[in-house]
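Ticket opened by: R.M.
Priority: normal
Category: complex prediction / small molecule

The reporter submitted a protein together with flavin mononucleotide and asked that the result be attached to this ticket for the collaborator who will pick it up next week. Submitted input follows.
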Amino acid sequence: MCEVPVFYATTDGQTRLIAEYLARAFCSHGLESVALDVANVEAWSVDRAGVRAVVLGASVHAGKHQTTAAKFAGAHRQWLNKLPSAFYSVSLGIASSNQTEVQAARALAKTFVEQTGWHPTRIVCFAGRLAYTRYGWLKRMLMRRIARKEGGPTDTHRDHELTNFADVAALASDMAALARPVVARAAGGFRGNAMSTDGLQRSRRQV
Ligand SMILES: Cc1cc2nc3c(=O)[nH]c(=O)nc-3n(C[C@H](O)[C@H](O)[C@H](O)COP(=O)(O)O)c2cc1C
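Result attached by the on-call engineer:
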């Protein structure tokens, strides 16, 4: 049984790293959790019975999130809309010194969920990673050019971790608090979810 599955789509691995961090954080909050790649069949066949809250993450590449993540959210939207849920978007734009880029990163996250019909309780944007050592030459040069334009790190001899894991931990605490009342009610025989997840509730880190 998994109480808070953390689904993710990734291209270079950072969104998986964040998903695994979130899953460990949920476990430390006393909730069973596991990170599941939406590209794998296990993510699509999760036993829904014990699930109390759901998190889905995806990263931005060339101006859009992974199609697999959109398909997953769209296919599961009725289920997701009945539970406390969060979408986290991973990008470099959100870490830009240019406010227009920051707003664009937030808008991408919002558009992603709007297009799927999912209404997550939380929408959060995390800065990702400049994985220069993992890119091929062309991708490395392209990313350095973008980083320079956005005021980011340009030393291509190493990777640059831009994710603030304190913010990731804060999302886990926030979602654990939302999941826990449902756990308590379920233990007492209540099967429904009285929590309203209509609309976008706002928090410090939200879009
Ligand atoms: C080829 C490429 C294109 C990217 N395009 C964008 C982009 O359009 N906007 C953005 O904010 N970040 C962009 N990024 C940055 C990624 O979102 C960032 O590296 C993130 O950590 C990737 O997450 P992942 O490792 O889970 O795929 C791009 C990265 C690469 C390598």
